[in-house]
Amino acid sequence: MRDILWVFSQLDPFSVMDILLVGLIIYGILRLIQGTQAVQLLRGIIVLVLIALSVINLLHLRALSWLIRSSFSALLVAIPVIFQPELRRALERLGRTSFLVNRLAGEAAIDRAIGHICRASQKLSKLRHGALIILERETGLQDYIDTGVKIDSLLSSELLLTIFQPHTPLHDGAVIIRGDRVAAAACVLPLAETTRLKPRLGTRHQAAVGITEQSDALAIVISEETGTISVAYNGRMVRHLDEKRLSRILHTFYRPVWKRTQSRFWRRVEKWKSV
């Protein structure tokens, strides 16, 4: 007990700030890799290091101790390679500046776009025409837009229905929407890295999850076999949606960032007033 009190007595405001910053960095890293394959890799590294340290301390193995100490420098080089997707995602998030600047489309234009997307998704679902619609948010998707056919047209449900009409040149691929405009069609997307997806899900679903793992985009998928409407976000997928549920999800996640923050602020204000 005295040792604990002595430790606390040595703390000053800068030491507390230092500890909090280290804890915040560790928490941010854990949040960043949550739900990815990096969790298993990190767990395996920690288990391996703990076992090695336990064996060294119990048996006093000098050669093994030297080997582990010498391996730390190589491990520092290997970490950026092993966790490259997670590090890329972290740097990309730090580089976002859209919370300071309004998006290209205003809230009214976004609402109209969401209405067109929901109506088109419902009709495509009834017709059982496969579709993959990507909504660009803060992360730019220009690299993926360049893989497709540039359209740069005002979004409408009729345009989406035409693009995803079977046997048309542009139906096999993803449509990327920027604001309230269709940026490109027949775009090629990365496939999912996660193993959580059910084996029966096809390439469209794999691509939808893949693009949301690499960016903060929203992905809407209409199954060609069942007509099921699904939405992918942040590497996860919600399935069996109808038009109303799809509309609620899009209004929650596709609105400009400053509008979402403003809405949460005013909801809290109203809550405080009612108390």
Write down the Rg.
24 Å
CATH top level label of the largest domain: Alpha Beta
Strand order of the largest sheet: 2-4-3-1-5-6-7
Number-wise, the strands total 7
The chain-level structural class is alpha+beta
Low-confidence stretches: 97-105
Shape: elongated
The tally of helices reads 11
**Helix content percent band:** 55-70%
Stated plainly, the CATH topology of the largest domain is called YojJ-like (1
**Largest sheet entry:** 7 strands, mixed
**N-to-C series of helices and strands:** HHHHHHEHEHEEHEEEHH
Question: Can you describe this structure?
Answer:
There is one protein chain. The chain is α+β, with helices and mostly antiparallel strands and 275 residues long. It has two domains: 12-94, no CATH class; 107-261, YojJ-like (1 (3-Layer(aba) Sandwich), CATH 3.40.1700.10. It has eleven helices and seven strands. Strands 2-4-3-1-5-6-7 form a seven-stranded mixed β-sheet. Strand 6 (229-233) and strand 7 form a beta hairpin. Helix 6 (107-127) runs antiparallel to helix 10 (243-253). The relative contact order is 0.11.
